[in-house]
Amino acid sequence: MGDQMQGCRGKAGIWAGITGLIVAVFLMVVAHEPFYVAVFMGLLTVLLFGGFLIWAFCTGRDVPEAARPSSAPAKEPAIPESPVETFNAQSPEGAAAHAQAAAAVPASEPAAAAQPAPEPKPAPAPAPAAAEAPQVEVKAEAAKPAPVEETAPKAAAPAVGQPAAAEGPGKKPRGLKAPRKAGADDLKKIEGIGPKLEETLNGWGIYHFDQIAKWGPEEVAYADQNVPRFKGRCTRDKWVSQARIIVEDGMDAFLERAKTNDY
């Protein structure tokens, strides 16, 4: 073991010397350092590098193998037999008794095997499940929608002041033979009455707004059916309603409401 230790350290010294020599040559040739500086740095390299190699590769190898802990488990000491067992084994009588005991053991095993195994007890029968109550299906009657009464479409309500036309031919409005002393009204102020219709109304004896304002369903029906080329114009343009506004509120109020057709 000592020879191995000396060999490891010798190799470490050789490598450290070579490294120190290389460092000294490098400093003198390449770095142009003085001779004594290069030698000093070479010796310092030998000491340091050599110590490192010895510590890294040679430490711990000088421990003898006998001192190292063994990884093999220790054997347990054998338990000595009792004196009685030793005497029985050595004596002829003991050997015969031991042989008889060994022969009796296998003979008893078939007897034990011949004994029938106990029959397993039958498991208790499960309790009968409770009778399920019959499910009664209750069918909910679908809610029937309430019958929708079909109603006939309602006719549009007549405008305020405008009577609805009566069924049938109606009745011709009562007229005047001539306009009053103040002169005939300008019936063209009513929306829907032009010069042609004004002549027709004058031919019926209608010259003033208050005459039209007094018309009822019969007169409105007659006017709707007997106005040439403009049937239904009286109801559609609300002649009676416009005439009542003029008579009751005045012409200025009528013209103001005419801007928005508020009749």
Automatic annotation (TrEMBL):
Low complexity: compositionally biased ranges: 89-116, 128-168
Keywords per UniProt: Membrane, Transmembrane, Transmembrane helix
Composition bias type Basic residues, residue spans: 171-180
Organism, scientific name: Thioclava atlantica
Segments passing through the bilayer: 12-31, 37-58
Signal peptide: none
Protein name per Swiss-Prot or TrEMBL: NADH dehydrogenase subunit E
Compositional bias segments (type: Pro residues): 117-127
Region Disordered, annotated ranges: 65-184
Keyword set includes Transcription regulation: no
